[in-house]
Predict the 3D structure of the following.
Amino acid sequence: MKAARLFNYGEKLQVSDIDVPSSINSGDVIIRTAAAGVCRTDIHIIDGLMKESMNFPSLPYTLGHENVGFVEEINGDVQGIKEGDPVILHPQNSCGFCRACRSGMDMLCDNGFSPGLDGSDGGFAEYIRTGSRSLVKLKQSTDLVGAAPLADAGVTVYHALNKVMHTIPPEGNIAVIGAGGLGQIAVQVLKCLTECNIIAVDADERKIRNAERLGVTETIHSAGRDFSGELLRLTENIGADVIFDFVGDFETPQSSIKGLRRGGIYSIIGYGGALNVPTVKLVGSEISVMGNLVGSYNDLDDIVKLYEKGKIRLNVERFRIEEINDALEKLKSGLIDGRGVVVF
Ligand SMILES: [Zn+2]
Ligand SMILES: [Zn+2]
């Protein structure tokens, strides 16, 4: 089968012909891939930035961690799925027995594996091996190509939002920093969950227009500058109750801290920059800073249900597996409006 694999850090992926994976453990499933989202994390992996956090995977391996497909083969007595079922794959297959799994935080499981991330072969290939615990069943009528980015982008957004929504009053103010793929999903989920004011911040005029179309209350064209003054002005000098930062780079961490209300939450999803805050500010304003890593199995299930109800739509640009490096290059250059998806 064809698979797009990383042979050396800093080099393009190579589309090679490799064996179809076979199951190793009881509970393993083989999925015939329908589509796989192309993610900024793929670029970070190729650039070697994730080596340490992924525990130094051995090369080569197949990337692709936003996967949807059909159950091809099931190893062992697995309840709830059968061959031919359309499914979306949570990026982490988990053990089910450790403390993290027992508390529903499968993404923090120490005994699992993550296809396309940690050295296990992923979904830029015609077939993938994963575990049955990671599968969320989709309806027969679900558009699989549009669903693929939910496996990471969508579940991460839902997780970040779900954690803090109970802290925001109905007349509160939420800022969404970065109105690209993840920001677009965030605005749509927020519209389902709350009546709060939603303020979208982006440096790109086109993405601002997109956010307006999705029904945000206000927008700020940040143009790479400190946007805290504008955020304060739009919130009657109170500041935002919660800021979701899908950029986490450049000026966004500092501006976010300055644009938060007292007792507010700065929730970080995008990464790459640094946060430098005097501790007296955190204490004096009782500000919380929160990181977000993927999301739980139930978070994925929840966002899939919203998608299947037609509440979440994401622009998708389709690529063939042979075009994977073009897709990555376009993503790097900011030329993909929404999400690139490899379609089989
Ligand atoms: Zn991803
Ligand atoms: Zn576990």
